[in-house]
Amino acid sequence: DGAVTNARFRLDVWWYGVPLLLRGPLLAMTVVVAPDYPAVQCLGCQIILMTFMAVQIYNWPWKAPILNVVDMIVCFLLVILVAVAGFYVPAVTDGL
Fold this sequence. Notes:
The protein has 96 residues and is mainly α. The protein contains four helices and no strands. α2 (17-33) runs antiparallel to α3 and α3 (38-59) runs antiparallel to α4.
């Protein structure tokens, strides 16, 4: 039954539960795709988070408007956190 994933979203954006479920595994895949390149991991996380933030802002999917604002702020803060963490990644050398 799709009521579990659809109950939280507006009816015209019923499909938003599927991308929301994909966001976590996609973020985890950045570590699998580039295990020895933390800068690539940060870039991948930023791209994924910014894409999902743009989709969320464009569609405004949550039934309660405050949830849309909170989701947007949290996603924005996660993008900033990953961007700042990117400054602290060690340089990749050939002697890995």
